[in-house]
Amino acid sequence: MRSLRHRPTTRMDPAPSRWAWRMQRLMLTPAFLLALRVGLPLALIAGGAGWWLSDPRNLQGLRDTVAEARASFETRPEFMVHLMAIDGGDDALAADIREIVPLDFPVSSFDLNLGEIRERVAELAPVKSAGVRIRPGGVLQIEVTPRQPVAIWRGRDGLVLVDVTGTHVGLLPKRRARADLPVLAGKGADSAVPEALSLIRAAAPLGERLRGLVRMGERRWDVVLDRDQRILLPEEAPIEALERVIALDAAQDMLNRDVTRVDMRLGARPTLQMSAQAATLWWEIKKASDR
């Protein structure tokens, strides 16, 4: 028999090629998978959006659509403010607030800058503090804490109401309109209101004889009484000096005599100044006694 020769068969190498192996390794990299699944779609979308927005007509149309949608949302009834309510002040203060916050109601709450409104109201002289909020029902609520005047300062502009810090609250047309408040005068008196109030409390025993205080040289006080009498107080320890005068008056009825000035600026040597009529009478008596 004739022997048959078998040709050897060539087997294919099952290992991938170098480029296929690198691609498989790359596909197993988390960063590449994320870029392929997320980054590529986003890049395509961004590119398409950029191409579409490159047309000015498309861009303007998008802006108009957004503006219409925003206006439609902001002007919904639940966001509209229909009126303003002011609590804490009198009618004059309310009128001033309405003047500096001119609003044409109804107005959207999105168009209101509450912080700016509060700052405007707080800048008014009679206002100590202010709060602004929007109440349910479309009400712009402004709550003010007014400054409480404690004295009247007689300055160049007339009578001015001042609070305990010396802040000007407002003008006073007539003294009798606030007869319950003491009067301060002199340059710088409105800057020393706390000291003035302490002196007024110390002068309580003088009762209705007290007419007011005058700031002298922006450093000390004169106490003004009726009958054109004055008590000149020192720059240092004025309350103690005033209490000494009140004690002398209680002991010797000094202020009910013909005395126009009680000078306490030198504590060791108080000085009394008599009226012109009393001084003339005193000299006449002295001359008669000398004879």
Explain this structure.
The protein has 291 residues and is an alpha/beta fold. It folds into two domains: 79-146, membrane protein fhac (Ubiquitin-like (UB roll), Roll), CATH 3.10.20.310; 151-290, Cell division protein FtsQ/DivIB (Rossmann fold, 3-Layer(aba) Sandwich). Helix content is 38%, strand content 24%. The chain has eight helices and 14 strands. It has helices at residues 18-27, 30-53, 56-74, 91-100, 114-122, 193-202, 238-252, 276-290; strands at 80-81, 83-87, 107-108, 127-135, 139-146, 151-155, 158-162, 168-172, 183-185, 210-216, 220-225, 229-232, 259-263, 271-274. The strands form three sheets. It has a nine-stranded mixed beta sheet with strand order 8-7-6-9-10-11-12-13-14. Strands 2-5-4 form a three-stranded mixed beta sheet. A hairpin with a 3-residue loop joins strand 4 and strand 5 (139-146). The mean pLDDT is 85.
Task: Please provide a brief summary of the model.
The protein is of the alpha/beta class and 291 residues long. The chain has helices spanning 18-27, 30-53, 56-74, 91-100, 114-122, 193-202, 238-252, 276-290, and strands at 80-81, 83-87, 107-108, 127-135, 139-146, 151-155, 158-162, 168-172, 183-185, 210-216, 220-225, 229-232, 259-263, 271-274.
